[in-house]
Design goal:
Layout: E1 5-15, E2 20-25, E3 39-40, E4 47-48, E5 50-56, E6 59-64, H1 70-75, E7 80-84, E8 105-108, E9 113-122, E10 127-133, E11 140-143, E12 151-153, E13 158-161
Parallel strand pairs: 8-13
Antiparallel strand pairs: 1-2, 1-7, 2-6, 3-4, 5-6, 8-9, 9-10, 10-11, 12-13
């Protein structure tokens, strides 16, 4: 379920009083986010030309074209930034963008359908696969590790999971 746009980062707040922003990059090389500028919002209605000015602990600092003060920079906080898929590097067969996982069918190692991938989340420690169960109810969070998720098969539209005991 490939999308035309991939989330590559997000504004995380202002930095200083001259309109610079803190920028969280989701790129393997964090500073590569600037290579895809201008970045857009998910709906494509807003565009942001960014220039990285420095790196700080856990984020980058950037200038955004047209943003000149702290208040304007504060207003950008939380906006997720997207790049067109054709701007991004081609991936080897065994790699994928997390956006490609959304909507894939999730099966356990015995072939039982558990649900579909709703999101891939990261709250600081590691990536989590959020699964919307077929039977309904609350989503299930599983660690997105090779041990728990041994198979991701984009061409077949499925993910095989081996959840830890008690996870379901």
């Amino acid at each position: 379920m490939a999308t035309d746009h991939i989330c590559v980062g997000a504004f995380s707040g202002s930095y200083g009083v001259k309109g610079e922003v803190r920028l969280k990059s989701f790129c393997a090389n964090p500073e590569a986010i600037a290579d895809y500028s201008p970045l857009t919002t998910e709906d494509g209605k807003h565009s942001y030309a960014i220039t990285i000015t420095r790196s700080i602990k856990g984020a980058l600092v950037a200038k955004v074209e047209g943003i000149t003060n702290k208040e304007q920079a504060d207003d950008l906080k939380g906006i997720r930034l997207f790049a067109s898929r054709d701007q991004l590097p081609a991936l080897p067969d065994d790699e994928y963008y997390y956006a490609d996982l959304i909507g894939l069918t999730v099966l356990d190692t015995g072939g039982t359908v558990l649900g579909k991938v709703h999101a891939v989340q990261n709250h600081g420690a590691s990536d989590l696969l959020e699964i919307m169960p077929s039977a309904g109810g609350n989503t299930i969070l599983l660690p997105f590790t090779r041990e728990v998720v041994p198979t991701v098969d984009l061409s077949a539209g499925r993910i095989i999971v081996d959840p830890p005991e008690g996870a379901l």
